[in-house]
């Protein structure tokens, strides 16, 4: 074999080996990096984060969405980032999938890969506020993750220190739920001890992008961007759909700014817990993703807002009704209508 041919073979093997290792270690390929560079030169973008396809589809089918002709999407790490324009605003849209983990990963990828100036997260949600109805679109000012717990041992109560609390890992400041408060049965009219005892809600550990690495901070109620929240006030007179085929809601849905929304990787279809969340936290919207988006944006210091349309009563309706199946499509469309109007106001 000639020396020239051996050299070419060695170069080929090195490139193959390098490529295999690049893939194995999750490195961004040169091809993908070039595409990202091209996109970022056209930025910054407004990031649109959506949980599931049935919430995304009405947006993609809207006449307001125009996909980029040269690079309509970029696939990376199991996510598809769709590039285009909405209401004359440059946007990158990503679908997260269900739950806090997926929402957090997708939002972090969006902010790490692309030049993003702000994030709009939208979707449907359960409703914990008896003053509102299905079809209404809520825009909470604060978001919290209520799925991080310290589960207290049986026999201990509010006066007992939690495990590792003295190390600063856990706290009793947020509050707790006492399971025996929800017992159906009592003995002689007295409360029966419940082996599940108490769960104490915990703030998240956060590591802000401008903070000191590995030096933790804590966050429970995360505020949306004040400017975005102020712009959202002008959405309150927007007309929304109120019927699915021949099934119509008691009144026309409204857009309303509310105080608080909460998220956890739990689908709430339980009246008692719904009422507890409303009375304990003054929560309106209940979902499985928004707080993850909020926490990532909070750590990355990116402006964000969350728009959630109410699709069900989180267990507060009749046991014979299935509100989510009936009204999910209506709620998703209402959320999209509000998002489009919000983007129009934001860019005007």
Automatic annotation (TrEMBL):
Signal peptide (residue range): 1-26
GO molecular function terms noted in the UniProt entry: catalytic activity
Keywords assigned: Signal
Matches recorded under InterPro entries: Nucleoside_phosphorylase_d (IPR000845), Nucleoside_phosphorylase_sf (IPR035994)
Limits of the Nucleoside phosphorylase domain: 46-343
Pfam families the record matches: PNP_UDP_1
SUPFAM superfamilies (alphabetical): Purine and uridine phosphorylases
Descriptive protein name: Nucleoside phosphorylase domain-containing protein
